[in-house]
Amino acid sequence: MRQGKFGQFSSVIIFCMILFSKASEKLELVTEEELLNLIRSEKYVVVLFSKPHCEECNKFENELISTREDLVDALGAWVVKIENSQLIRLYSPSKEPVIVFFRHGIPLLYDGPVNDEMILHTFTNNKEPLAKELTDETFEHLTQAATGATTGDWFVMFYTNECVDCQRLQARWEAVGAHLKTRMNIARVNRGSTGAATGRRFDVFDVPAFILFRQGKMYRYEIRNYDVKSLVSFATEFYKNIRAEKVPVPKSPFDDLIAAIVVYLKENPWVWQFGGMTFVIGLIAALLVNKKSSVKPSSKKKAAKKEK
């Protein structure tokens, strides 16, 4: 009898010890410099962007702690947290808490429920970057956008290296890819360099820009709301409410040259201003020269009359 009571008492003590150890367990806290080094050097890094005295942050941390061992076993991932970091602005429009999964340095914003099983499922099923990088050389070959052929639908983001908003969208765009990976292809085109001709082909002047290519038609996302839910909704349903455009064939070299000049003038309005100023100065100079030339003969005639 005593042994039974002692066994029950021991079980209670062990249970309390487990609860205490779980309650005291925390994610490793890193600095911004340490985090950047991890992102550069490690294959997989899971980061909780947190802040002190935040109840919601504690919920996120507890769920990550629950799945940390599985993440380490399945991915060999580092699971850490950082507090009050300005880096969060690069990956999420929201404030703390935020979870970001880095794969080879490419961020994926976690936008699912605060649940350890869903976190594990999302990350283990998206171990590689999802958005394909398309260039002028590969775009038509891979998408077959003009023919609407066999490679499926493509949801494409146009960006430039200089666009800060585009950089901040990368983690969200990867999250969009995670939602749509079984339904369509997700891609990016650098309109400022390797995809400049492709950008001109589709009259993409401002970035970020999003176009859905589906069965030989294209649908422009023209809503200034870049959250994951809105982008996914557009690609799956809302595009039906948008006017479909026929996908243009690639421009001829001459047409592309004209388009490139138009884009250059649009992006460099000072050229117009300088050209207009030069024209005005030239016109004034021409008028002055013309006026002087018309005055000189009359002066000579007056001088000749005086001599007579």
Automatic annotation (TrEMBL):
Positions of transmembrane segments: 270-290
Keywords: Membrane, Signal, Transmembrane, Transmembrane helix
Signal peptide: 1-23
Domain Thioredoxin: 133-220
Protein name in the entry: Thioredoxin domain-containing protein
Organism annotation: Agrilus planipennis
